[in-house]
Structures are given as C-alpha cells and as structure tokens.
TrEMBL record:
Keywords: Hydrolase. InterPro entries: Hydantoinase_B, Oxoprolinase-like. Pfam families: Hydantoinase_B (PF02538). One of its GO terms (molecular function) is 5-oxoprolinase (ATP-hydrolyzing) activity. The lineage of its organism: Bacteria, Bacillati, Actinomycetota, Actinomycetes, Streptosporangiales. It is an enzyme of class 3 (hydrolase). PANTHER family: 5-OXOPROLINASE RELATED, HYPOTHETICAL 5-OXOPROLINASE (EUROFUNG)-RELATED. It comes from the Bacteria. The keyword Hydrolase applies. GO terms for cellular component: cytosol. This is N-methylhydantoinase B. It comes from Sphaerisporangium siamense. One of its GO terms (biological process) is glutathione metabolic process.
Length: 622
C-alpha cells in the first residue's frame, strides 16, 4: 500500500472540494431555468473509480447505474452519461425532474474518477406543468423516463436523444440550456481532476482517496456513534396524504439497533413502514443496499458532535457507508415501491426519514437531537404572461428548523444546501404577479426553551388569471417538539381567503386575487416555561412571537411600551407555576393535527420512553 503524505491528503481533499464548488458555480452561471440558476436546486459530486463519494459538502446521486449499464473499460474521454429513471437509478434519483449527468475522469487511458451533477429541472413532460402531478397513480403520468444513456460520445452530443428530451418538455429551451450547462461544467471538472492525477500520480492520489474515506469512518465511529448507548430503539413518523386517498397516517418506522463492537455498529430496520401509496409519495430506496439513503440520513448523526463548530467540520462521504446496515421490508412499501408506482412527491418520505432518525436518536440520547423540521415544499403558478407566452414559476420554499439542545432553530432554511427562494425583483420582472410580502411567519416556530425557527410568510397578488400548484406535506401534521418543546405551526396556503390542500395541481387564481403562503415552523426543544423571559420579550420586540403567544405558550407577562416590552417577573413566575401544573407535555409533541388522523390519540405508542421496543405497533392504524 502506498504511504500517504498527510500534507498531500489535505491538498487532495481541498482540491476535491474546490472542483466540486467550481462545477456548481459554472452551472449556476450558465443554466437557463430559474430552478437551477436562481433557486440553486442542484448538486455536484465527485466519486472515485470504485463509485465511492469523495466529497462531503452535500449529497449527490450515484454512479452505480451508469457503471451497471456501461462498463468502465468501454468508456472514453469526452463521454457524458445521462439518466433520470427512478427505478433504474439504484436509488440515487427520487423523481423524474431530477436529471443526472455523469462524466468519467481519465488518466493514462484509464477511468480514475467521476464528476456528476443532478438537479431539479423545470419540466420533463407528464400530466401537468412541472412534471409533478400531485394526483398521479403511475410513473407514466410523471414525465419522460430515461435509463442510463450515453448523451455525449467522445465529445460529440447525441442530438437525437437531446431532441427527444426537449420535445417532451414544456420548457424546451430552458431544458436544453440547463443540460448544456451541466454537461460542460462536469467536463470542466473532469479536466481539473485529471490535472490532479497528472501532477501527483495515480497511486498517490488514490491512496489519499482511501485515507479521506477511512478518516470519515473512524471519526464518525469514535466521535459520534460512541455517544449512542447500545440497545434497540423504535420510533415512527408520518406523511399525511398521498394526493389520491383521503388524508391518513402513512408511517415511516425505524428500529435502530446499536452494537459498538459490530463491524456495522448501526442497524436501521424499516420494518413497519406503511404499504406503498396509490399517490406519488413513494421513494425507491431499497437499491444498492440502500447506499443513497445511508448518505442521505448520516448528516443527522453530526448532531451528536461535542460542539456546533465541530459538527460543521464533519463531512459525509462514502466513509459513513460501512458503519450502517439497512434492512428493508419486502417489496410494496413506501420505501420499497413496485414499478410503476408514482414517486414525484417522494420528499414526503425521505424528508420524514431524517426526522424519524432524529427522533429515535432523541429517545436513545435523552433528547440530544434537534426537534423536527420540514424545510422543503414546492409552490408555484403557471399560465400565460402579458404577451400570451406560457410560463411556469415554481419555487422551493424553506421553513424553520427545529430547536436544539443548545440554541433556537434557524428561520427559513432550505434542506438543499445553498438553495434559496427566488428573488422578488427577478420574479416580478419575469412573471405577471406582485410579491406584496416576503417575511417571517410570526408564531410559526414551536415554543420551547429553545424556540423552533420560523417559516416564510409570502403574499403573491396575481396580475393575470393563472393556476396554482403545491407539493407540500405538514399541512395537517406539524413539526414535532421534543423534550417538552411544542410543535410548530403547519404549512398553510390560502387563495383569496380559501384554504388550499397541500397537494394541488391546477387551482384557478383570478387576476387580482392573492395567494398567501405560510411555510412550516420548526418544533421547539425543552419546556417553553423554562425560556428566559427576556428572550421572549426580545422575540416579541422582533416580531417573531406575538403578545398572546408570549402569555399563553411561554407564560410570560409583558409590560409596555410595545416597541421595547419587558417581562413582569413576579407575574410571570406566578403564571408559569399555574401552567406547569395544568399543562403536562409528552417527550414528543406532535401538535393538534395528529389526533385528527389518529382516531383521537394524542401520541403514538413509540413516543413513550418506557424502554427499547422491538415489534410493538403504534396506537394508530396503518
């Protein structure tokens, strides 16, 4: 084995991160669609010749489906591979609008690495604009499915394939521009990595790859997993609707087994997850031993770091994979759907899984996990602009993150790293509406010792008749609070005062009507009656908490003036003493929406902290 120079490891690791960011910067500067260029809903990743993800700044798709269909020995410089087929992506693609390009990196005639980019594009066909039909019953309604193909052959684009894809899109120019940007950026990244191999040689660089990955494995094992007591822990959470059936609890359950001496100290068993839905909330996760889900879920473990600063330093690359064993239920569940089950709203499941893992770890660690968050949903409008041209505006709006054991949650964050809302100035110049308000949704964060982060409050007034669309969960159920913290407020959209469902394809909005969007607030952490009254007063002054919430949720009595309220300490202590005795809270607070879907139950059976659980069912039916 080649000896590894620690200085060279730092150089290689820094180069990988730099190339990844350079690829993303190039895509952002040259792409055409607002979803890619402005909202930044795309990711780049770098993998070695063994298909291991080397970079850890973000998640990415997988190289496995490309290598499965195109042997490495048959690849050539200048090749670019493409796919978006959910069921032929080995779990790396969740829905058809996520288009993925992969470029092999060559050194001395051999493939030594891969540069990959995938992102959410405006439209790839299907039943509705945006390719996310909320009432889809089949993948065939969701758009064009493309298994791995060679999109460029030795530097020459496959014009026939590009013509087929753009012909199926309602936004052909935008799609063509995005694909050109992504292919060109990945080819550029491949040249940068080839320079790295040319400078230091293949044996030295690959030895650094091995070290980067093994360092992650040992760091996670030593610093994070060691903080989880051995045992078996069970928890579950729910999506609330699938767009086809009436709202009900679609369970995602994790049984976590921790055994530190085992080669894979964490076993994540999804047995107990609900059957696959008729509608599009399924996620095809049971491929390639669940390697995509391992890397998707592993960032939750970083919350176990000693400090927030240390947490921010920890990357999630292929090094987390050997630490986790995943056990999936048989085919036919939300995580093991059978083709052609629809998947375009699979975010309801994979985002919920982040919270389920956080919840089961909260049980294991006495609450040293953040409360829940739901920081992604798609809303938008489409129609014709003032010149009669069709348009589609779709936005990925974030929400508040959960309160943490050491701090409040963050306001209006996005689960996709570096993604953002669409700038108001750009939106108003491009589309026929006015943004009358974009701010924080007061009282949306769950009350707690550490308050949940706030969601968005956005008001859009239409200037022309249009149709409204929404792909959003947590419109009934709320982001749960933990360790005495309260749930946040759920997602809410009204059109001219009328409340919308979370899943909407084509609700008509007349010119002059206003769409009001309130995104989810994160759950609170710890009892709100333990929050410093001065902090509550500051929240009221800053417009994050109302006077009514300060009194009813935090037990804080504030005195005038309104622009600089102060807490009445004796009155606050007396009120809190009364509230503590009359308002006991469970370890998990699921909010007032949960009983409406659970036959009146206030909590699920796994919420009880009576000890490890193996196969017991929840108090609610599936």
């Amino acid at each position: 084995m080649t000896a590894v120079d620690p200085v060279l490891v730092e150089i290689v690791e820094g180069t990988l991160a730099s190339v990844e960011r350079e690829v993303e910067t190039a895509i952002a500067r040259t792409a055409r669609s607002p979803m890619i260029r402005d909202a930044h809903d795309f990711r780049a990743g770098i993998h070695d010749a063994r298909m291991r993800k080397l970079t850890g700044r973000s998640y990415s798709a997988l190289v496995q489906p490309v290598v499965r269909d195109f042997p490495i020995a048959e690849m050539n410089p200048g090749d670019v591979f493409f796919h978006n087929d959910v069921y032929l992506s080995e779990g790396g693609i969740g829905h058809l609008p996520d288009l993925c390009v992969t470029v092999p990196v060559f050194h001395d005639g051999d493939v030594v690495a891969f540069v990959q980019a995938f992102g959410h594009h405006d439209d790839i066909g299907g039943a509705v604009p945006g390719s996310m039909p909320s009432h889809a019953r089949s993948a065939f309604e969701e758009g064009l499915m493309v298994p791995p193909i060679k999109l460029w052959d030795r530097g020459v684009p496959n014009r026939a394939a590009l013509t087929i894809m753009t012909r199926n899109s309602r936004m052909p120019d935008s799609l063509a521009g995005d694909l050109d940007a992504e292919c060109s950026a990945c080819l550029m990244g491949a040249r940068r990595l080839a320079d790295l191999f040319a400078r230091y040689g293949r044996p030295a660089v690959e030895a650094c790859f091995d070290t980067i990955i093994s360092n992650t494995t040992e760091t996670f094992r030593r610093e994070l997993l060691a903080k989880i007591p051995e045992g078996v822990y069970v928890w579950e959470d729910y999506a609330e609707h699938d767009g086809v059936d009436p709202p009900r609890l679609h369970a995602q359950r994790i049984t976590l087994t921790v055994h530190h001496a085992a080669d894979r100290p964490l076993v994540i068993d999804f047995t107990g997850t609900s059957p696959q839905a008729k509608g599009p909330i399924n996620h095809a996760g049971d491929y390639a031993d669940g390697v995509f889900l391992k890397k998707w879920l592993a960032p939750i473990l970083r919350n176990l770091a000693d400090t927030p600063e240390r947490m921010a330093e920890l990357d999630v690359n292929e090094g987390v994979v050997p630490l986790i064993e995943m056990r999936f239920p048989p085919k036919g569940t939300l995580l093991t759907p059978v083709f052609p089950a629809p998947t375009n709203a699979r975010t309801f499941v994979i985002l919920r899984l982040l919270g389920v893992l956080a919840g089961v770890l909260a049980k294991a660690t006495g609450g040293r996990m953040p409360a829940d968050q739901e920081t992604i949903r798609y809303t938008g409008v489409y129609g014709e602009d003032h010149d009669g041209r069709p348009y589609l505006m779709r936005e990925v709006l974030g929400g508040g993150s959960g309160g943490r054991w050491y701090a409040d949650g963050e306001d209006t964050i996005h689960v996709v790293p570096d993604s953002r809302n669409i700038p108001v100035e750009f939106a108003e110049a491009r589309w026929p509406f006015r943004v009358e308000r974009l701010g924080l949704a007061r009282d949306s964060g769950g009350p707690g010792l550490h308050r949940g982060g706030l969601g968005y409050d956005k008001h859009i007034r239409m200037l022309r008749d249009a149709s409204f669309m929404s792909i959003a969960d947590r419109s009934i159920l709320a982001c749960w609070g933990v360790n005495g913290g309260r749930a946040g407020q759920p997602f809410l959209v009204t059109v001219d005062g009328h409340e919308m469902d979370g899943l909407v394809d084509d609700h008509p909005v007349a010119a002059g009507q206003t769409i009001r969007i309130r995104t989810t607030g994160g759950g609170g952490w710890g009892s709100p009656y333990d929050r410093d009254p001065a902090a509550v007063a500051a929240d009221v002054r800053d417009g994050k908490v109302s006077l009514e919430s300060a009194r009813t949720d935090y037990g804080v009595i504030l005195t005038a003036p309104a622009d600089a309220p102060t807490a009445d300490e004796p009155a606050t202590e007396a009120l809190r003493a009364t509230l503590r005795g009359s308002d006991p809270r469970p370890f998990f607070d699921r909010g007032p929406g949960y009983p409406t879907l659970s036959n009146g139950h206030l909590h699920a059976e796994p919420d009880i902290l009576s000890g490890p659980t193996h196969d017991s069912d929840s108090a609610t039916s599936r």
